[in-house]
Amino acid sequence: MSVRIIDEKCKGCKLCLPSCPFDAIVMQGKLAVLTDACTHCGACVSSCKFGAIVADAAPEKVVDLSGHKDVWVFCEQRGGVLQQTSAELLGEGRKLADDLGQKLCAVLIGDNVANLTDALSAAGADTVYLTENTLLKTYTTDAYTKVFVDLAKKYQPNIILIGATYIGRDLGPRVAARLKTGLTADCTDLKIHETERNLLQTRPAFGGNLMATIITPDHRPQMATVRPGVMRKLDTPKTAAADVVKFDADLTQDMIRTNVLDVVKSVKEKVDLTSAEVIVSGGRGVGSAEGFKILHDLADALDGVVGSSRAAVDAGYIPYAHQVGQTGRTVRPRLYIACGISGAIQHLAGMQSAECIVAINKNADAPIFKIADYCIVGDLHKVVPMLIEELKN
What is the DSSP-derived secondary structure letter of residue 82? Predict the structure, then answer.
């Protein structure tokens, strides 16, 4: 929007002067004049009774997006080991690339990681952009952001997918800001619009009470982060070898403001929910921290792990590392047993993609029963021991 004053209509009444929050209107003789301090906010337009101040709509800017092509996936590796989310995003990216008739490209950044290109090819990649440098051995924000942005500016991708891991959540927004584009975080569904060919990015909004679909029609690349465990990797590995494009990083030590001196892995027990085949979860209905003991027994009998709802974590029954849901982990196990979980939408968002869901709850009207494959109405403290006994037999 552009604000201007029509001299022929200005009466010199000075009514517009106090309307400007930036004091950008001054009197020159008997005429009001806009100074360089004007931000064209339009606050002064309605103050003029004579129609001397007008706001013109800014001309529509036509953006040429034709030079952007292909679907990119940032394939995260740590210490030379690919993270599970890389294969999951390549599986989803394969569908998007096929719908667009474009290539699926994996972006691999690190040091001595060329041996991972075959795995990325099998996971669905047509092309692997490989950047190796001793300064990229350990993830640092400055180094990885610069390399990724330089790559994107040279090859101009259409879509970029990044895992919503600790690294991905740090890298994604910085890349988006430097490429002057948008970023949709924690997407649960990605599709290509049939006619407009834009990426439809769906994510929970308003505390998980509704699902919002977001598009980026006027900027490229279209960027989204996806939680680990939400998407599925390819059922059948791709046999055709991917093309490997080596990209030399224009990187020096003085560009990196943080030096990683050492990496110390936590000695506490880690709960690997995202890769678990079986998860036994408890909610507020478990009643206490002691009540989770029988859930651990059931999980052990099924060679699974124990999860929980946010309500159980907030109540102090179990540590946060076990939390499943919008504010915890997103999981896709073969079997998910929900014990004493009512089924708040925030929890369902993190586990409803499980292959088989068994729900145990005393309340026959609990929302969890609407998505469960098997529903058991009863006291979990009676039902779960019976299940354990049957499994032992």
Answer: E
